[in-house]
Amino acid sequence: MSSILTDRHGRFHDYLRISLTDACNLRCQYCMPEEDMSFMSRSNLMTVDELGTLAGMFVRHGVRKIRLTGGEPLVRKEAAEIIDRLGRYPVELAITTNGVLVDRFLDVFREAGLRSVNISLDSLDAELNRKITRRDHLDQVVRNIEMLAESGFRVKVNMVVMKGVNEFEVGDFVAWSRALPLHIRFIEYMPFDGNGWSAAQVTTHDQILELLRDRFVFDKLQDGPNDTARAYQVKGFTGTFAVISTMSQPFCESCNRIRLTADGKLKNCLFSQGETDLLSALRAGQEVESLVQQNIRSKYARLGGQLAEDYHDTDPEILKNRAMISIGG
Ligand code: SAM
Ligand code: SF4
Hints:
Layout: E1 15-19, H1 48-60, E2 65-69, H2 79-86, E3 92-97, H3 106-112, E4 116-120, H4 126-133, H5 138-150, E5 154-161, H6 170-176, E6 182-188, H7 205-213, E7 218-220, E8 230-234, E9 240-244, E10 257-260, E11 265-267, E12 276-277, H8 278-283, H9 289-297, H10 324-327
Parallel strand pairs: 1-2, 1-10, 2-3, 3-4, 4-5, 5-6, 6-9
Antiparallel strand pairs: 7-8, 8-9, 10-11, 11-12
The chain binds S-adenosylmethionine (SAM) and iron/sulfur cluster.
């Protein structure tokens, strides 16, 4: 399909991730710098109307799936209004959230036809969870995950696996999916501005499987054509688990994702240095589609043209990017 959303490498981008805000009620160490984090001013955020207009333009050009993210999307004052508005587009609507506020949004999700919720949780241990998130919401998040799963939502639990921090918990997360239909996803730790990443802290896909083999017998599941996760299931378990191996085995060839930041900049890759300011153009009454086309056509074949093929060779000091919290993961 030829479209302004097709890049020079033949990839058609039909999956748009929209960040609603760079604000958050947690302070995860791997996501944001401990110091010097400057948040966007409200006047720089897309309004509900601007977000709706830009999303509508992408849908007209072939976007079929929209995921809301952030920062924490549910702390945005107009979150319910945005979800309601996007629910009217002919797309699969999904959200990635830290889960703290989810119980307040179940009806909003249902009414908008939003059935798929990804919740981030990196440790089931109270003290370690507090250390990673610098906040104290573990019980609430666990309750909300179980409530969503029991209420028929499709729930993925995202755990960023960091060597020497939480990798010994991977088995406990998988055990959680024994009787509950949870889809546990282990994410390899990625480098972003100011997050202190080093190659030595990455626990890879193969290492995660090795840790799990001690405790479980599992089968490989069939992955979809654009999936970024390699999925498995323990024999007899209700849920599944998967590994997002961006560092050790990237999925760039089949990438169909683009991102719109909360301040209306288009990023064609999580690791792209460049971004295109769609919001300023929209506010100035300029035509936006040609900017989108230029941005998509400039997409690098692999890893934003910035990361090394072997992640051990990536020097986090020379990467030029935003902090994850202000990209929208
Ligand atoms: N606040 C929401 C949440 O935590 O789910 C949405 C935004 S958060 C930036 C989106 C996802 O990015 C989360 O699953 C988070 O764990 C992941 N993430 C953030 N920093 C990361 C990093 N350095 N490496 C891998 N994943 C990361
Ligand atoms: Fe907030 Fe999500 Fe980043 Fe944690 S991972 S600081 S919850 S945006």
